[in-house]
Every structure is written in C-alpha cells, then in structure tokens.
Specification:
The complex is a heterodimer. Chain A is an alpha/beta fold. Chain A has eleven helices and 26 strands. Chain A folds into three domains: 176 residues, FAD/NAD(P)-binding domain (3-Layer(bba) Sandwich), CATH 3.50.50.60; 126 residues, FAD/NAD(P)-binding domain (3-Layer(bba) Sandwich), CATH 3.50.50.60; 83 residues, FAD/NAD-linked reductase, C-terminal dimerisation domain (Enolase-like, domain 1). Chain B contains two helices and five strands. Classes of the chains: A alpha/beta, B alpha+beta. The interface between A and B is medium-sized, with 26 and 20 residues.
Chain lengths: 412, 107
C-alpha cells in the first residue's frame, strides 16, 4: 500500500499543531503543510503585544526552528497557495502549477482581516494587523506616528492602542457598539477596560462609526466619524474583525456558514476532510449551538484532536475554551464562553485592579472573565471542564473557597 | 554562555548553551528539545513547559510569582515542590549549570 499523505492547508498555529501531533501520535505517512505566508509557522498573539512593542524579537515568534520540520519529516511549503480542492481525485491544485495527492486533508486556513468599506480606506497609513508582515510594517510606522486612530475596540484594537500610547502616540479609539470587546466580554469587564484606556490617555468614542478617511497626497490625515467628529491621524489601524478563509472549502462543495461547518469530531461532510482553528464552525457544549473561535487554545486543541483522528485515536472535541489579552498592565483571562449569559456576578474589587466576573446562564456557570486574577481563572477552567456545581451566591462570596470547591468536584 | 541541561524521562541528557535573557523554555524550543510544548508561547496561560528543577539548585532560580503558582495546578504530570514553568526561568549567569528534568508528558 502506498504511504498515506496528510495534507494541511494553512501554516498557522492550528496547522502546525496537526503536523507536530501527527508525528507525536506515530503517524508514519507523509505530512505536507502548505501556507501562503513565506515564513515558517509563528505565533500570532505577540504581534499585537510584545512583538509590536519591541519587547520580543523574531526568534521568540517562531513556533519551532526551521530544523524541526526536517527533523520530523514534515514538508513545509511556505509561500505556496492552494487554488482548488479536487475531492473526487483527492488532489490539491497549487498556484505554482503543481498538484498534491492526499488521503487526509486538514483545512487550517485561518481568517483574514475584514476591510473597512469607506472612502479613503486605501490611503497610505491605513493599516491592518493580522500577519507578521503587517506587524513589521506597523512597528516601523508606529515609530513615527504621532496621532493614531484605532477603528474597532476588540482585543487587537485595544492591545494595539495600549502599545501605541506607551510609545508616546496620541490615541483615539472609535467603536461602533456601546461596548468595547462586547462580543466576548460582559458589560462589567467592557466598562472596566473602557475606563482603563481612558485613564491611560486614549479618547474613546462609543456608538461611533467611520464615515470616511481623509488624506492629502495619498497619505492619511484623519478620520471623519458618523457623529461628524474629525479625528486627526497619521496612522489608522483597522481592526473590525476577520473573515474566515472558507472559499476553498465552499468551492469544493463543503458547507460554509460563518466558517467551514464541521461536526463534533471536526470533520466536514467529507469524512476525509477536517477543518480547525479560526476557519472552523463547530458545535460545542460551551455555547448554545455552534461557534467559530479565534484563539490559540482553539487552534492547538483542535489540531491535536484531528491529528488523533488521522492517527487512529478518534475523540470528540470538547475542550474548555480559554483566551487572554494583555492591555497595559492588565491581563484579561477568559475561561469558557461568556456570551449569552443572563447573570454576571462580580468577585473581587475592580477599583483595586483585581477581579473576576462569573457569568451564568439559567443558573449554570458558563464562563469567567478574570482581570489580574489568575487564581480565579485557573479554578474556572477546572470547574468548566465538568459540571461546575457553583451557585451565584458562592461565586460572589469572597470567603467561599473556590479551589476547595473545584477539588471536591474532581474527587467525585 | 550559560549551559542548561535538559534531562528526558528516559535519562537522556541534552546540554545546551542558552543566552542570558532567554528563558529555559525558549532555549529548549529553539534547539528542538522535545518534551517542552509551550503552547501559549510564554504567556503563563498553559502549563506545557513544566520542568522539575534539580532540587539542590532550587535556591538559584528566580522566585515564583503567584500567577506561576496558580498555573502549576494545570501540569499534566504530577506537580512537585520543585515544579516550575520553564518560561519563567529566564537565564542569568547565575543559572549556568542548571539541570531541569522533563516530565513524562506536558498534555
């Protein structure tokens, strides 16, 4: 029998993890990774944090040194693009003209930045932040930037804003909703971060969109908001979310609905094709219905899960989601998915800068947001791995021992 | 350059030169030492760069933060008094000769 081939489309954290875990799980076939970025797999989170701030270098960004791929017999095609998936013949078509046969196909195609569709978005100095190339360019521009406008107050926008302020730029943040990071955090946490950024010197305009971007001689000079404000700018960061890279899957006849639709094993309707990471839309016990998550945890754990399937150790994907964000001296850690909660219970003291928000739906704990409070985050991840059995009263009572509660659960 | 020794569960030793200012975790990753996973890249969000520090060298290692103590609850292998997250062991000249033992598993 011919050696089986596992082809991985995408060289981000998810794609890397599949390759690494396949070898660890004893997969003896050929492994080919294909990604359109011309560099080996790297970590994306530092791009809006320590790497952007200049506190860490390229060496610290690589997931593994290049020798790792040869040592583990992983073919890394960096700078190559897949143009089509032929499901019938089990082949990939490559932009370079070649073809690649596969037996197992993993789509870890990630997501791309969502452009802002307003006049002036093409001006020089209006920038995205998604890739290493984006971050390198931004880092250079940030050196000279004096007035920065951040469009979109999600994780990346706020992380970028805190770095830009620390580097001496005047920063304005424009957010179309009333709640920064509102898609993923409770109103309490959102408000806390709004106040923190304001105290650091950022000007935040909520409920405000961008009507156009202004420029002179091809270079950006400012932003005009839907409220009629004019915000001067020599650098504008657009971070209004991402678009999952699902076109390849869609063109191959696989179902796409806010990402590539997969089942609880992360397989598409074609049992030989999996989708993982930012591009995958999957069912989860941690939310009502389906989700698509953009996080390291999701990429890594889903990569491991799919590698297990291919190597003959199938499992259902059911890992507790977790996320983090560094903004200024604040570390936000989230366990579970708090969107859709009906009750939020505060534990700790936001004025003191250390607290957690325990989020419940129908009396059951569904997620916890912690700010500079790692101990709560750790407990939350333990609790959410099973039936948390935590009441609202216990969550809000600082004298109630959460660690003992978690221990008693795992002992059961 | 300070030397750090990584001991695998089967007893194999890898001795590496790790530059000052680099973590024991990053030293392992850059040199392809299997057995350090470092899922979160040194953000103290996972516990997959767990090591056991040679007991009589514990005094030389930097103090443990509360966050590190908290995250050590997640180690896949048994937590012991000499357990550390190697991303928090930033190499200094004083750490030259440090010996760390890799656990059976990180996940």
């Amino acid at each position: 029998m011919a050696t089986p081939v596992a082809a991985i489309v995408g060289t981000g954290q998810a794609g890397f993890q599949v390759a690494a875990s396949l070898r660890q799980d004893g997969f003896a076939g050929r492994i080919v990774m294909i990604g359109d970025e011309p560099v080996p797999p790297y970590q994306r989170p530092p791009l809006s944090k320590s790497y952007l701030a200049g506190n860490s270098g390229l060496d610290e960004l690589w997931l593994r040194p290049e020798t790792f791929y040869t040592q583990h017999d992983i073919d890394l095609l960096a700078g190559e693009t897949v143009t089509a998936i032929d499901r019938k013949e089990r082949r990939l078509r490559l932009v370079s003209g070649g073809e690649l046969s596969w037996d197992h196909l993993v789509l870890a195609t990630g997501a791309r930045f969502r452009p802002l569709a307003v006049p002036g978005a093409e001006l020089d100095g209006v920038l995205p932040l998604r890739t290493l190339a984006d971050a390198d360019f931004l880092r250079e521009r940030l050196d000279q930037a004096r007035e920065v406008v951040v469009v979109g107050a999600g994780f990346i926008g706020l992380e970028f804003a805190s770095v830009a302020i620390a580097r001496g730029a005047a920063v304005s943040i424009v957010e179309v909703t009333q709640h920064p990071m509102g898609r993923v955090v409770s109103a309490t946490t959102s408000r806390f971060f709004t106040e923190a950024h304001t105290s650091w010197g950022a000007k935040i305009s909520l409920g405000t969109g961008v009507s156009r971007i202004l420029g002179e001689g091809g270079r950006v000079t400012g932003v005009e908001t839907t409220e009629g404000q004019h915000l001067p700018a020599d650098l504008v960061l657009i971070c209004i979310g991402v678009i999952p890279n699902a076109e390849l899957a869609g063109e191959a006849g696989l179902t796409v609905d806010n990402g590539i639709v997969v089942d609880e094993r992360l397989a598409t309707a074609d049992p030989a094709i999996f989708a993982i990471g930012d591009c995958a839309n999957f069912p989860t016990p941690f939310a009502v219905g389906r989700v698509r998550l953009e996080s390291v945890q999701n990429a890594v754990d889903q990569g491991r899960c799919v590698a297990g399937h291919i190597a003959g150790k199938p499992t259902v994907y059911d890992k507790v989601p977790w996320f983090w964000s560094d903004q200024g001296d604040l570390k936000l850690q989230i366990a579970g998915i708090t969107a859709g909660h009906d009750t939020a219970v505060l534990r700790g003291d936001p004025d003191g800068g250390h607290f957690s928000v325990f989020c419940f739906r129908a009396g059951r704990l569904i997620g916890v947001e912690s700010v500079n409070q790692t101990a709560d985050h750790v407990v939350a991840r333990r609790l959410l791995a099973g039936d948390p059995g935590l009441t609202l009263e216990q969550a809000g009572d600082e004298n109630y021992d959460l660690r003992a509660h978690a221990r008693s659960l795992s002992a059961r | 350059m300070p030397q750090i020794t990584y001991v695998h569960p089967n007893g194999t030793r890898e001795v590496l030169d790790v530059p000052v200012g680099t973590s024991v975790m990053r030293g392992a990753i850059l040199n392809g030492v299997d057995g350090i996973v470092a899922e979160c890249g040194g953000e103290m969000m996972c516990a997959t760069c767990h090591v056991y520090v040679e007991e009589d060298q514990l005094g030389r290692t930097p103090t443990q933060s509360d966050d590190e103590k908290a995250m050590l609850e997640f180690t896949a292998s048994e937590r012991r008094p000499n357990s550390r997250l190697s991303c928090q062991l930033v190499v200094t000249p004083e750490l030259d000769g440090l010996v760390v033992y890799l656990p059976e598993t990180q996940v």
